[in-house]
Amino acid sequence: MKRMLEPAKTVLLNLLVLASFVLTAMLWSNQPNLQFIEPAEYTQSKPVQEKQLVELVTPESVVFHYGENRHTKASATDAPYSLIVREMSKWIFLDFSPLTISNEKWEDIAREKMGLEVRFRSTVPLSIVGRLVTFRDEFDNRIKGIDRLWLYYEKDEDVVYALFLSTEEGRMMRSRTSISPKDLRESYLASGDLMPEQIMKIVKPERSFVDLEGPALLWSTYYLPKNQLRMQQFRYSYVPITNERLIESYFIDQSLVRQIMERDKTVIFTDGSRSIQLRSEQQAFTFTDPAYQQRDQELSDEEKVQSAVTFMNKHLGWLDEYHFERIKKSYNEKDLITFRQYLGAYPLISDGEAKQIDTIQITSEAGQVVTMSRSQLDLDKYIDNKDWMIMSGPELYQYIRDKKLADTEKITNAYLAYHTKVGDGYVDLMPIWVVELANQANLYISAHTKQGGGKAHGLE
């Protein structure tokens, strides 16, 4: 019995090995027909109006300094502004160095020296500025961005210097430029000679920012027209963005999208991951994508803004005229990127409680868009306009004093804009003065000059 058991084991083992070979051969020759799943991509809405980053980052205005405290200003619709913006691509900057100057030197540069001031809407990352001009040398990371580029002529050295100014950081860098004194005088300053005369208002810092070389005084400036201006009040029709177009623009598989109605009448479209929230009372919507992919390296501010621009180009596009306004950190360290709508040279400002048609606001994390909010209204056809006479700077100040709206010594900036008022099928764009105050809410004042001044708006 024992002698028969051993041959039986050998036979069974050989059968198992043979079966294993047979099964392996069957699996090898009968592979399943696997289908590779491509990474999901958003559906691109068509047609869309795409923009390049350099088209969205443009100066807010150009101020011309002639010495003897004479200044003029050009905005986006003025020929001298267009000349300067075209010439900027030819400017070369080199030999950068940090700079601290006294109040006396500021007085000399601001009021007495010939120069040119390119002003941005807020702080623009230096790497983006480097797309508008040419840096021959690199910064040493003393400042991350600038809100003003100030060219001035130093007569004793016969050189045009440039100041790169960051009001937010309270720092500045100086460089030499490729701009010849002749071009500054006979081309740039000559082009702005007939633009409206301005009153320079200086805002000195409440405290000195400490630099490696000692306290740094950085003057902030803004400009008010000496005389009354003409400005148009406009009325436009608008076209609402349809739900179908929103779904087509923001969802991968439209068949998965379902609609949810909240108790407060808010409508939500979702595919189980991404969602669009429609606020009917404001005719605006918010897109949310909670998916987050960790990045191995930290992105620069330029890369973050470029990512937001790319997202907008692929999803609905830029329906109206927008410009980059700012990038800043939120309370939870995400990036808040704002693009503001413009009509010509003037920004649109919406009432805090009314329909918002003035900004596109994006929250991103490591360059990926997490939320995006914008209006559902697209300005369409021009309907009507009225010619307005606009309060001059002195009239604006006098009106603020007469109405006891604020202490004019606390004003840090003032500029013209359009207040949006949405009606039944139309949007009125009303000229207003936006007055920024230190540690206070902004004032929004009707810019019309009749009856001694404007009427304050109840904007938040």
Automatic annotation (TrEMBL):
Q: Which InterPro entries match?
A: YycH, YycH/YycI_2
| Tree of life domain | Bacteria
> Could you tell me which CDD domains the record lists for this protein?
YycH_N
Q: Which residues form the Regulatory protein YycH domain?
A: 7-441
The record lists the membrane-crossing segments as 12-29
Q: Which classification does the entry list for the species?
A: Bacteria, Bacillati, Bacillota, Bacilli, Bacillales
What is the name listed in the Swiss-Prot or TrEMBL entry for this protein? Answer: Transcriptional regulator
**Sorted alphabetically, which keywords does the UniProt record give?**
Membrane, Transmembrane, Transmembrane helix
- Keyword Transmembrane recorded: yes
